[in-house]
Structure formats: structure tokens, C-alpha cells
Amino acid sequence: MPIVEPGSFLTLHYRLAGPEGDIINTFNEKPATLSLGSGTLSPALEQRLLGLAEGTRLVMEIPPGEAFGDRIADMQQWVARKLLSELGDPTEKYAAGDVVQFPTPDGMGSYAGTVMQVNEVGAVLFDFNHPLAGQPVTFEVELIGVL
User: Fold this and answer.
1) Helix H or strand E encompassing 82
2) pLDDT by residue for the chain (147 residues), tens digit each?
3) C-alpha dist (Å) from residue 29 to 23, 55, 65, 144
4) Rounded Cα gap, residues 77 and 145, in angstroms
5) Which is deepest, 56, 81, 122, 137, by most CB within 10 Å?
6) What is the residue-wise DSSP string for 108-134?
7) Pairing, β 137-146 against β 57-62
């Protein structure tokens, strides 16, 4: 049976959950496909896949901060309404819990921030930490195919 190695191409179902429940769960959808090392999964999650055989299904409990790092207070930042209007729809309404995509400075990618609060002048406090940063993570995986 094929074994997961660095650079392997994988077809799998996986579930990531924190104390509040699932963040992503592909078990009721089409399986995910990814290349190990492409950045789809965090390095800590990829490390746990190395050496597993095709057909493996298991659940791993990962300690707080290990899967997605610790929460960093400086990654909570206020963003002015003017900048939000320039980057997106000027009529957009933001509410706590919304996840907003931002372009990277080079315009080649994006990153997400979660709305924490909106002040009276429309500035928005975003948390740019991963939603599971600093939390224990349950990582469930079923390896369907390994190339």
C-alpha cells in the first residue's frame, strides 16, 4: 500500500474541529485533493500524515497552539471603513463573526479576517489569527488515495 511521504498527492476526507465544533468537514461531501507541502494544511497537520498508509482512518487530538500556533494579540487590528470600501463593496455591512477575504499586498493571494466588532464610525476590528489558533484541535482523516 502507498505511504504518505513529503510531496505526496492525497485524496482524503478530513475534519478539523475545535472546542466550538467543526471548522471544516469533507466527510459528507466530495473528498479533498491536495499535495503535501502546498500549504493547504498546516505543517503540524501534514507532519501527522507522514508515514500513514492509504486506507488509514483515524482521529488525532492535537494540543492547544500546536496545529495553528498560539493566538497573537497583535493580529487583532482595526481597519478603517475607507480602506474596506477601497478593497471591496462600499455598501457592505459587517457583523461580528463575518469572515472577510483580503488581497495580499502582491495581489497574488488572499487571507481572511474575522469581524470582532464594528464601531460607531464604521471601522471594523478584525482578528487575523486562524480560527483554531491557541485551541486544541481534533483532526480526523481518511486517506482514500496516495500518489
Assistant:
1) helix 81-87
2) 999 999 999 999 999 999 999 999 999 999 999 999 998 999 999 999 999 999 999 999 999 999 999 999 999 999 999 999 988 888 899 999 999 998 888 888 888 999 999 999 889 999 999 989 999 999 999 999 999
3) 14, 18, 28, 13
4) 41
5) 137
6) S-EEEEEEEEE-TTS-EEEE-S-TTTT
7) antiparallel
